[in-house]
Specification:
The structure is a single chain. The protein has a five-stranded mixed beta sheet, with helices on both faces. The model has no long low-confidence stretch (mean pLDDT 95). It contains eleven helices and 13 strands. The chain is an alpha/beta fold.
């Protein structure tokens, strides 16, 4: 048996910055309204005419991660790609990465777990390495939200939250089982699937039906019961973090850095207060990037590492909650 460890990290954000003031020109909202509810000040949206997509952004982040790992594309044995916004209904983005990076014909797997997608993807990759099947795995989280949002007042409760971006890491074999990913913890509760959902297009509501309908009949924009999601998120975040700590005989005081999914700054602040963590023990960047869903944890992890906030021997806790409902955590000894 082996452990797996992160040996390379990379991120990519579109250059186009969309501020809360910019959104107030599109819909009935304001900087004060958005910051009070979410903590978000700005986000990145792919501009019209850009080549960027979920797969393209993922490839750009992956190149950085592979280079920082001291490897080449030919050293990667497998790809795991997490997103809720694939370039195509099918195939998934994983195979596009294999092509975009001109990699050997390695396997590629897509994970569709939305906000918890990266932690789920990390867990999948971790198991492949632990069993000895693969040595180096590329794990990517990427999202292109902006092209699928309702940019009117009707959609403001969702639209102001989401941003575009990608992050990637290279997971590699570690023979010292006291280091690397110590454990991952995954959960779901499908009875609440309709609380955060894109109901169309789907096999039930396919393209001809959408084209023939009025917007009142079928909406292809995201729907979120924000209050309900928030109440569940703060409970599940806490549970899955505690589960990870207990599994590894750790306590709240052992957390050197908590990196929560960047869903809402108010959720992160609630969890920080509940666990009694100081500001330097929790990393948030939602203020700059909004919620990048499956990309958010790995973008934040990359940025924290780039800023020198992660040191060898630190206990890093990743946690996420989102549509499904799904939630997950990972405990890492850096």
């Amino acid at each position: 048996m082996y452990n797996s460890k992160i040996i390379g990290l990379g991120k990519y954000l579109p250059e186009n910055v969309v501020t809360n003031a910019d959104l107030s020109k599109m819909m009935d909202t304001s900087d004060e309204w958005i910051q009070e509810r979410t903590g978000i000040q700005e986000r990145r949206w792919i501009p019209e005419g850009s080549e960027d997509t979920s797969a393209v952004m993922g490839a750009k982040a992956a190149k950085i991660a592979i280079e920082r790992a001291g490897l080449t594309k030919d050293d990667i044995d497998f790809i795991v790609f997490a997103t809720l916004s694939p370039d195509y209904y099918f195939p998934g983005c994983g195979v596009q990465i294999q092509d975009l990076l001109d990699m050997p014909t390695v396997g590629a797997l897509d994970v569709r777990n939305q906000c918890s997608g990266f932690v789920y993807a990390l867990s999948v990759a971790d198991q492949f390495i632990k069993t000895g099947m693969y040595k180096n795995i590329l794990v990517i989280g990427a999202e292109y939200h902006s092209n699928g949002l309702d940019k009117t007042t009707r959609g403001r409760g969702v639209t102001v939250i989401f941003g575009d971006g990608a992050g990637a890491c290279v997971l590699s074999r570690e023979e010292d089982t006291t280091k690397g990913i110590l454990s991952t913890h995954l959960h779901s509760e499908g009875k609440y699937a309709d609380k955060l959902i894109v109901a169309s297009p789907s096999i039930a509501h396919w393209v001809p039906e959408i084209l023939e309908s009025t917007e009142e009949d079928i909406s292809y924009f995201p729907y979120m019961d924000g209050t309900f999601v928030f109440k569940n998120a703060v409970v599940r975040f806490s549970e899955v973090i505690i589960e990870g700590l207990m599994k590894n005989n750790l306590t709240k005081k052992d957390i050197d850095l908590l990196i929560p999914h960047q869903a809402n700054l108010r959720i992160a602040q609630f969890i920080q207060k509940k666990f009694g963590l100081s500001d330097d023990k929790v990393f948030n960047n939602i203020m700059k990037y909004g919620n990048t869903t499956a990309a958010s944890v790995v973008i934040a992890l990359t940025e924290a590492w780039e800023q020198g906030k992660i040191k060898e021997g630190d206990h890093i806790v990743l946690a996420a909650f989102g549509s499904g409902f799904t939630w997950a955590s990972a405990v890492i000894k850096w």
